[in-house]
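User: structure tokens for this one?
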Amino acid sequence: MVSLRFRNSIAFAALLALGGLNSSAAAQADAPMPNPPEFPFENPMLVDQDVLGKFLFWEEQMSGDNTMACGTCHIHEAGGSDPRSVSTINPGPDGLFNTADDIHGSQGVVRFDNSKVFVDGGLFGHNAQVTGRKTPTAINSVYFNDLFWDGRATQAFTDPQSGLVEIAYLGALESQAVGPPLSDVEMSTVGRSWDDIVDKLTIATPGKLMVNMPPEMADFLADNPTYPDMFNAVYGDPTLSSRAIAFAIANYERTLISDETVLDDFLLGIIPVFPAGPLSDGFDLFQGDANCASCHTLPFTMDNDYHNIGVRPDAEDAGRMDTTGLPGDLARFKTPNIRNAKLRLPLFHNGGKNSVQDVIQFYSDGGDFPGPNLDSELLVLNLTTQEISDLTALVEDGMTDARVEFGTFPFSRPMLTSEFPSLNSTYGVVSGAGTVLGHQPAFPGNADFTMGVADATANAPALMLVSFLPDMGGTIFPDPRFPVPVNLDLNTLVLDFATSTDADGYASFNLPISGNPVLSGLKFYSQWFIFDAAAMATGGVYGTDGLEVEIL
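Assistant:
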């Protein structure tokens, strides 16, 4: 099976012959996208490596709590970015929600220790944390020299397990791929290592949390039912490693080439000129008076450089300077490619603009925040309403790839468990004091499944009860101050797990779920009780809401 597909093979051959395939150089305005792109010498595309990478990219079991995949924040139909950013907010530098410096980032993980214990998430408390920048697109990311908004994922790839430089040049995708799985905001538990990730995936069932796999994934899984089988099929070695994982994810991303737009039809000569009207007028403005092409150079619609365009005050985010340490890089951010921009709202590194038209108006005004480090290319354009409309039409209608918008190959993908309503739900059984934590997916073979409580009395004895029937008389067990019998009756088993809350009012209990498939569809119920002498009205003990959990 070979699933790799590229469109412009003739154009690619011509560019190669002319020496025009260097992704770090801006192509001529009338040249097409080089497709396929360059691959690192050390990581040529192997048979089915892109399919393995596709599994790993969409694998929620890659995360510490089984709730996040790489693809969770890079949804193809959202232009390769995160559609949740419309409503997921990081409070920004001032640490206050609902203020001017709020950032539309990506929702990550609830803060969770590598020893399977919930810990306080600071400003986010027991809720999922949110990144401090908007997720860039993964589509066409192969054409960037360096990745992330500040360029910290460089072309030289260092394997995090061995510490060796495994790719000297063109390895930015590999460098980027090993970052988020260890971020305890994005995907990881606190203190997790790549050894932990490798050990987990080695025994995981590939795609366990995926639904509606594309055919190439389903076929590959049928032939290779475990990750060691998959790695052996691709690399001739069943051993998983951070290097092999990064190589596969990166080469999958090298197939995510968006080059079937009106713009590309023009660059390839399929159409001799842009269609008359807003697209044609917008293209003339883009290349001319609007000055867009000075940074959004064709065909890539980016220049592989960093600019300060006055999105926010310089002091709020140092941008590129975080990576280089150079004062001249203060608040400079990587120029994004603007293909499929209408699909990945909101826009800019902070998600500060809600539409393509808002961005064009921003440029017409010469930015929002002046400063000593503002880019010299940023001009006050004073575009007319019609010019803004024409440029908007060019970007939205002339640079959007229908395959991306509608998720067709190579942008087909599985659905993730996190995209569906959770099978875990709370219900009120008593006063509801404290907050029960149970967001993780329960499935056969999940050794990491953990339930917890937050917002409880600090350093207090705590008891978690689990039953296989719903609550009885308002609580799972009427009075937790007395020993819980093994069997309440022939049909109801109640288990008690004694622990205590920490100094922040959190308590956790790990409940490994057997790999027996007969457990699928089983429901169980949980409730926490906290012993607190101050809870006089309830006899020195109070309970949380109940939690209903369905095993996938």
